[in-house]
Design brief:
Blueprint (H helix, E strand, L loop, with lengths): L5 E2 L2 E2 L2 E8 L2 E6 L5 E3 L5 E3 L20 H7 L4 E4 L1 H4 L4 E4 H14 L1
Antiparallel strand pairs: 1-2, 3-4, 4-5, 5-6, 7-8
Length: 108
């Protein structure tokens, strides 16, 4: 998800606050120190509370569907966190990841 950082005709300079809300990154703007939720573009606190950054359509920022990416870049490695996978560190191709998940599901 990508948002336009212009509000009321002025471009905001955004930074990472280090905070999370329900696992979503919270940004701040240097102009008003308002806090913004990355996932929705909603102003959470500060002078811009209640305002919303405009979501840009996927075409505007070059989204590529996973299947298309995988065809063009079959060597791509996928990194997942041990916490999310419930096991040790893991890297591999997306096909390997899917095979491992399918095998684990079949064992259940």
């Amino acid at each position: 998800m990508v948002h336009d950082r212009r509000v009321d005709g002025k471009e905001l300079t955004l930074g990472v606050s280090g905070k999370l809300v329900d696992g979503n990154l919270v940004m701040y703007d240097t102009q008003s120190d308002s806090l913004w939720l990355q996932s929705s573009g909603e102003g959470l606190e500060g002078a811009r509370r209640g305002q919303k950054l405009e979501e840009l359509p996927a075409e505007a920022w070059g989204v590529v569907r996973w299947g298309e990416w995988r065809q063009q870049h079959p060597e791509t490695l996928v990194l997942t966190c041990a916490h999310c996978e419930g096991r040790g560190e893991m890297t591999g191709t997306i096909d390997e990841l899917h095979r491992e998940r399918e095998a684990a599901a079949a064992d259940r």
